[in-house]
């Protein structure tokens, strides 16, 4: 079946112009009669300037379509639309020598600068089509006591806009599409006794598709970058050489210039941040006073210096647990051995060492003078969580409380108070500017702790994904299904992030997660097709999670459907906001699964050497093993990504 969406129709005449009725026909039979046609025509007249004034606009927002073959199930498909109009004959003939008439203009709803004067003119074809409309070449007359039969056919012109980088390079261009309509029409006089028309009708016209084949013209660039490379000696060979140089030969050297340069920049940046030349921490609060600011700056600085001292002495810190072995990157290691004195001076080793030893003992509960008690407890609580991780990994704390370590991972959000009724206005809540400063600083500190102490630099990203998936703002249009969808998304989120962030076990949520969502779980108000789409998508996601976390046997067919990038197309019964929210949720879940579950790194890096081995030999061997393990991790990620795309 061929379909064409209805176009916009401008109907212009005298100020007394009125549409008495419009008939929607299928197979030459009237399927729907609309008196006044007020369902699609705005009662307010529009002034089209250069075209006409006193115009009515027939606009359906693509809810009506023309169809070549129409069945009873096609409720919105028709093959003809008829209009009966009234025109004030004396007024219409006052300035002409002809019979009373009105004008009809068919315009593509995809390119309609007439009804939308702000429509962007981007290409030469846009200008040509717009000029044609201005010259009124597409106007058709509807005459008194005559029937005008108008047929149209549509065409599109796909332009390549100037500066399109994809087209210049030789890839598929980002085409700009201009829609155009061509018309042809015939006139027939009314018969002597037209008894089927509304009383007061002075004229009639009908609109039908003259052709259901849409002509499409596309521009192509004859000269492209890839074409030039191919002419010079073969695009494939050149491109392969560039890829090997920048990204490595995966069989021999899995990392190329691009990876190594990126790592060098990152390592150099971190090295500079640890040096004596990096500016000292300065928090520019607007409401928090200088006394409280000094306390916070001191705490944040001490945490940083503890981590920096740990990086300086990863293989020979006496207080450090022997189970935790960390090593310097290759560049820093060479610098340390070749220019030992300069290295220690540059990183201010002596001063950082003193602060490191003092900080182990110097712990206090901060009492702030310009922050209320609730926010004071919040800040101290967050600082204590970070202190505990530092104690466990740097100061040889004997007991390792997994519950406290887990709380550090999943309790990261700073929820400041909102006590607007506080009588003491000097101790009112922290304002938005200072909240942002504190949140940013805690974010930077946790990033250092995650990477250099826990060896898990993605915890902050995982937590942000966890936070975003907790919000399910479905509209009230969902009715009874709103709670069901919210519960299912929370169950899936809980299972993933319980594993990733060590969230405490909740048996009730987990038991509900194990129950598969059925079509029958949804209310009768939801479209059956929408139910099936949701059930299938939930099944695929749960299968991938279960096969990874609970050793469920993998079904390759399910994995193949799961990895396909797609947007779920729901019925018109679902609002656009809910449809977008559902697609965004599924996309976020898939990204979390791919980035954090399927690419988990489980390679052991902690090795206990015997006391007989020389310290320098230990350090050299650890550096070699670390570099080797990094390559293995990167290769593993590449293989996982390749296999998942080929399953």
Q: How are the SSEs ordered, and which strands pair?
A:
Elements: E1 3-5, E2 8-12, E3 18-26, E4 29-35, E5 55-58, E6 65-67, E7 77-78, E8 80-86, H1 89-93, E9 101-107, H2 124-134, E10 139-143, E11 146-159, H3 165-169, E12 176-189, E13 203-209, E14 215-218, H4 225-233, H5 235-247, H6 257-274, H7 290-312, H8 330-338, H9 340-346, H10 349-361, H11 373-394, H12 402-410, H13 432-454, H14 459-470, H15 481-501, H16 507-514, H17 528-549, H18 556-563, H19 576-597, H20 615-646
Parallel strand pairs: 6-7, 11-13, 11-14
Antiparallel strand pairs: 1-6, 2-5, 2-9, 3-4, 3-8, 8-13, 9-10, 11-12
Helix pairs in contact: 4-5, 7-10, 7-11, 7-13, 8-9, 11-12, 11-13, 14-15, 15-16, 15-17, 15-19, 17-18, 17-19
Structure description:
- The chain is of the alpha+beta class and 647 residues long.
- It folds into four domains: 3-218, Acid-sensing ion channels like fold, CATH 2.60.470; 236-274, no CATH class; 290-457; 465-597, no CATH class.
- Helices cover 45% and strands 14% of the residues.
- It contains 20 helices and 14 strands.
- The strands form three sheets. Strands 3, 4, 8, 11, 12, 13 and 14 form a seven-stranded mixed sheet that branches. Strands 5-2-9-10 form a four-stranded antiparallel sheet. Strands 1-6-7 form a three-stranded mixed sheet, with no helix packed on it.
- Residues 315-328 and 602-606 have low confidence and may be disordered.
């Amino acid at each position: 079946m061929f379909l064409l969406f209805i176009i916009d129709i401008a109907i212009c005449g005298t100020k007394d112009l009125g549409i008495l009725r419009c008939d929607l026909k299928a197979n030459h039979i009237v399927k729907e009669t609309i008196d006044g046609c007020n369902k699609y025509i705005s009662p307010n007249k529009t002034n089209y300037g250069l075209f006409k004034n006193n115009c009515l606009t027939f606009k359906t927002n693509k809810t009506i379509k023309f169809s070549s073959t129409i069945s009873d199930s096609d409720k919105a498909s028709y093959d003809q639309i008829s209009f009966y109009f009234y025109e004030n004959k004396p007024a219409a003939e006052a300035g002409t020598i002809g019979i009373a008439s009105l004008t009809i203009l068919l315009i593509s709803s995809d390119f309609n600068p007439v009804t939308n004067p702000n429509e962007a003119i981007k290409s030469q074809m846009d200008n040509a089509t717009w000029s044609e409309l201005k010259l009124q070449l597409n106007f058709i007359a509807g005459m008194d006591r005559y029937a005008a039969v108008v047929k149209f056919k549509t065409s599109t012109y796909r332009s390549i806009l100037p500066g399109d980088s994809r087209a210049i390079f030789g890839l598929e261009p980002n085409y700009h599409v201009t829609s155009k309509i061509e018309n042809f029409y015939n006139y027939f006089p009314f018969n002597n006794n037209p008894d089927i028309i509304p009383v007061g009708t002075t004229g009639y016209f009908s609109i039908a598709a003259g052709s259901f084949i849409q002509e499409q013209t596309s521009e192509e660039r004859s000269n492209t970058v890839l074409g030039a490379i191919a002419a010079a000696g073969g695009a494939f060979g050149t491109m392969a050489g560039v890829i090997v140089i920048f990204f490595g030969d995966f069989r021999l050297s899995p990392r190329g210039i691009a990876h190594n340069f990126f790592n060098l920049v990152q390592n150099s940046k971190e090295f500079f941040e640890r040096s004596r030349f990096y500016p000292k921490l300065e928090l520019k609060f607007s409401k928090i006073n200088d006394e409280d600011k000094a306390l916070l700056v001191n705490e944040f600085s001490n945490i940083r210096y503890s981590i920096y001292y740990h990086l300086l002495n990863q293989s020979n810190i006496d207080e450090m647990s022997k189970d935790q072995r960390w090593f310097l990157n290759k560049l820093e290691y060479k610098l340390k051995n070749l220019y030992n004195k300069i290295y220690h001076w540059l990183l201010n080793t002596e001063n950082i060492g003193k602060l490191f030893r003092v900080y182990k003992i110097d712990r206090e509960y901060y009492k702030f003078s310009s922050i209320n008690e609730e926010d004071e407890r919040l800040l101290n609580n967050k600082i204590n969580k970070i202190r505990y991780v530092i104690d466990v990994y740097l100061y040889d704390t004997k007991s390792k409380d997994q519950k406290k370590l887990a709380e550090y991972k999943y309790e990261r959000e700073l929820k400041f108070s909102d006590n607007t009724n506080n009588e003491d206005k000097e101790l009112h809540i922290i304002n938005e500017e200072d909240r942002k400063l504190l949140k940013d600083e805690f974010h930077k500190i946790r990033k250092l702790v995650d990477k250099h102490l826990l060896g898990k630099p993605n915890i902050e990203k995982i937590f942000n994904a966890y936070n975003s998936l907790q919000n399910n703002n479905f509209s009230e249009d969902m009715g009874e299904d709103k709670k069901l969808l919210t519960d299912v998304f929370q169950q899936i989120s809980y299972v993933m992030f319980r594993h990733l962030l060590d969230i405490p076990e909740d048996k009730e949520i987990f038991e509900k997660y194990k129950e598969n969502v059925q079509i029958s779980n949804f209310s009768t108000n939801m479209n059956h097709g929408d139910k099936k789409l949701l059930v299938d998508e939930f099944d695929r996601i749960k299968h991938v999670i279960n096969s990874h976390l609970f050793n469920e046997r993998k079904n390759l067919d399910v994995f193949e459907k799961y990895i396909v990038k797609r947007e779920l197309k729901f019925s018109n019964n679902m609002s656009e906001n809910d449809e977008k929210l559902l697609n965004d949720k599924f996309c976020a879940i898939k990204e979390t699964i791919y980035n954090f579950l399927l690419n988990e790194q489980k390679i052991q890096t902690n090795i206990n050497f015997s006391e007989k081995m020389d310290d320098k030999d230990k350090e050299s061997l650890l550096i070699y093993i670390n570099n080797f393990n990094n390559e293995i991790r990167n290769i593993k990620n590449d293989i996982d990504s390749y296999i998942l795309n080929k399953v």
